[in-house]
Design a protein that fits this description.
The chain has 494 residues and is an alpha/beta fold. The chain is built from 16 helices and 23 strands. α9 links the parallel β11 and β12. The N and C termini lie far apart (73 Å).
C-alpha cells in the first residue's frame, strides 16, 4: 500500500508522530494509501525550514521569481493529465471535471507570472519641497494554506502561486482525504527551480492545523472549507496575530424567472447542481422557480436525471462520480429522509441507485422545499437539488438576501433590465447572469459575503496580491547639507 509522506526542505520526509490516516478510492471503497499526520513538533520543524528559505527567496529578483513561475506553468500544463488522474483516484470526481479543476488552477499560475507588474507600487515626486513619497509592496515571510478535499489541486494553486510569486515561503496543509496532489505539485515546483523550503507540505488533522494557527512565525493563513471551521480558523488565527482569510460554506441559489429559456435553465441547474456530485462550494443547491415556470422547470430537470451516467470517475463515460467517503454519503442520504419527513416532495431519490462498491449516491431532486426545512438551511454538499417556489422576483431576491450564506448566486432570464437589477439588489459575493457557477477568472478575485467569508479580502487575483504582501510607504529627502537645521514643528508639505 502506498505511503504518503510530508514534503519539507525540497524532499519527501517521513512522519515521526506515529500517526497515520487512511486514503480511499471513493469509487471502489477500498483503502489505497496511508498518509502521515504531523505532530505540532513536526509542523514547527517544517516552519523553521520555510522561515530560513523565506529570507533568501524574498531577496530573489522579480524577474527570477517570474521565471520560476513560467517554468512551473509549463510543467503543470505538460503534466495536467497525470495530475487529473491523481485527483480522480483519491477524490472520485470524473476525469473531465478533474481536468477542469487543474485548468482553473493553471489560470492562477498564469496570473502570478505577471508578478513584476503586480508588485509595482506608486511614486509621488515633490510631495513637499525636495521630498518624494513612494509606496512598495513586500512579502510577509512564511504563510500557510489549509485546503479542502473537494479541490485538492485547484485551491492550493489559488493560494501558493500568488504567495510564492510575491516572495513568501508557503506551507500547505492539504486535506488528509486526498493528499497526493499536493506532493505532485511539490515535485513540479522543485523541477521548476524553486529553492528548497519555499514550498512545504505537511499533512495532518486538527493538531497540525492548530500548530499552524498558533505558530509565531506564520504571518498569514488562507483557508477554504465549511463555515464552522472557517470561523474557528479566523478567530484562532487572528487571536494569535495573523492575517487570515477564511472562506466558508454556501447555499447558492439559482433564480429562474418566467421568461427564462426553459431548456437552458434546466441544463444549467443539472450541471451546477450535480457536477462533482455536488461537492462544490459554488454548486447550485437551490433553484428558485418564479411564477408559472415552476411546473415545466421541475419536469424538465426530472426528465434529464435518468440520463446522468454515474460511475467510477476514471471511466470516460461517467458523468458523476462518488462522494468522498462513506460517512459523507450517509450524511447526505440522511438529508433526503429529513426533507421528506418535513414535507418536501421527492421527485428523484438518489438512494435508489443500484448497489455499487464505492461511496455512490444518485442525483436527488426535492420539490416544494421551504426555508424552514433542514435541506434548505444546511449546506448539504452532495447531489441534492431543492426547488423553492415563489410568486415574484421580489420574493426570490428576499429569499437569497435572508439566507445566512452569500457565496454565489445566479439568475436566468431574457430580460436585461431584470438581470441588471438583480446584480444591484442581491447580497452575494459572486453573481451569474445566465451563468450558473460564476467563479471569477484568475485576474479577478474569488469570495463570498456574510457567513461565506471571514476576513477582509477575497482569494487570488488582485486581492491575493494584497493578502500575501504588505504595503510600506517611504518618504525621502536628499537635502544640501548646508541647508540642514533643527525644526521641532509638525512636518509641513507646503
Amino acid at each position: 500500500m502506498n505511503h504518503i509522506a510530508h514534503w519539507i526542505g525540497g524532499a519527501e520526509r517521513a512522519g515521526e508522530s506515529g500517526r497515520v490516516g487512511p486514503v480511499f478510492n471513493p469509487a471502489t471503497g477500498s483503502q489505497i494509501a496511508s498518509v502521515d499526520l504531523a505532530s505540532a513538533d513536526e509542523v514547527a520543524a517544517a516552519v523553521a525550514v520555510a522561515k530560513e528559505a523565506a529570507k533568501h527567496w524574498r531577496e530573489a529578483s522579480l524577474s527570477k521569481r517570474s521565471a520560476v513561475l513560467f517554468k512551473f506553468r509549463e510543467l503543470l500544463a505538460a503534466n495536467a493529465g497525470e495530475l487529473a488522474k491523481i485527483v480522480t483516484t483519491e477524490h472520485g470526481k470524473v476525469l473531465a471535471d478533474a481536468a477542469g479543476e487543474v485548468a482553473r488552477g493553471l489560470e492562477n499560475v498564469e496570473f502570478a507570472t505577471g508578478i513584476p507588474h503586480l508588485m509595482k507600487g506608486s511614486f509621488s515626486e515633490q510631495a513637499a519641497t525636495g521630498v518624494d513619497v513612494y509606496s512598495i509592496r513586500q512579502p510577509l515571510g512564511v504563510v500557510a494554506g489549509i485546503t479542502p478535499f473537494n479541490f485538492p489541486a485547484m485551491v492550493p494553486l489559488w493560494m501558493c502561486a500568488t504567495a510564492i510569486a510575491a516572495g513568501n515561503a508557503f506551507v500547505l496543509k492539504p486535506s488528509e482525504k486526498d493528499p497526493s496532489a499536493s506532493l505532485f505539485l511539490a515535485r513540479l515546483w522543485k523541477e521548476a527551480g524553486l529553492p528548497d523550503g519555499v514550498f512545504t507540505v505537511v499533512h495532518g488533522d486538527k493538531e497540525a492545523v492548530d500548530a499552524l494557527l498558533t505558530h509565531p512565525d506564520i504571518a498569514a493563513v488562507s483557508f477554504v472549507g465549511s463555515t464552522p471551521i472557517a470561523k474557528y480558523i479566523y478567530e484562532t488565527g487572528t487571536a494569535h496575530g495573523k492575517r487570515v482569510q477564511a472562506l466558508g460554506g454556501a447555499k447558492n441559489h439559482m433564480i429562474v424567472l418566467p421568461d427564462a429559456e426553459l431548456d437552458a435553465a434546466a441544463d444549467a441547474a443539472i450541471s451546477a447542481g450535480y457536477g462533482a456530485a455536488g461537492e462544490r462550494c459554488m454548486a447550485i443547491s437551490v433553484v428558485v422557480a418564479v411564477g408559472d415556470i415552476a411546473d415545466p422547470l421541475v419536469e424538465a430537470i426530472a426528465a434529464r436525471l435518468p440520463k446522468i451516467k454515474i460511475g467510477d470517475g476514471a471511466d470516460p463515460d461517467s458523468e458523476m462520480g462518488p462522494l468522498i467517503s462513506a460517512q459523507h454519503r450517509d450524511k447526505v442520504a440522511g438529508y433526503i429522509e429529513a426533507g421528506a419527513s418535513e414535507g418536501a416532495k421527492i421527485i428523484a431519490d438518489g438512494r435508489d441507485i443500484s448497489e455499487k462498491p464505492g461511496f455512490f449516491l444518485g442525483a436527488t431532486l426535492l420539490d416544494n422545499v421551504t426555508p424552514s426545512m433542514t435541506v434548505y438551511t444546511d449546506e448539504i454538499f452532495g447531489p441534492v437539488l431543492s426547488i423553492v417556489r415563489v410568486g415574484t422576483y421580489a420574493e426570490a431576491v428576499e429569499l437569497v438576501n435572508n439566507n445566512e450564506y452569500g457565496n454565489g448566486t445566479a439568475i436566468f432570464t431574457r430580460d436585461g433590465g431584470a438581470a441588471r437589477q438583480f446584480q444591484f439588489d442581491v447580497n452575494a459575493g459572486m453573481v451569474g447572469v445566465n451563468v450558473p457557477i460564476p467563479v471569477p477568472v484568475a485576474y479577478y478575485s474569488f469570495g463570498g459575503w456574510k457567513a461565506s467569508l471571514f476576513g477582509d479580502t477575497h482569494m487570488y487575483g488582485p486581492d491575493g496580491i494584497h493578502f500575501f504582501t504588505r504595503s510600506k510607504v517611504v518618504t525621502s529627502r536628499w537635502p544640501d547639507p548646508g541647508t540642514s537645521a533643527i525644526d521641532l514643528g509638525f512636518p509641513q508639505t507646503r
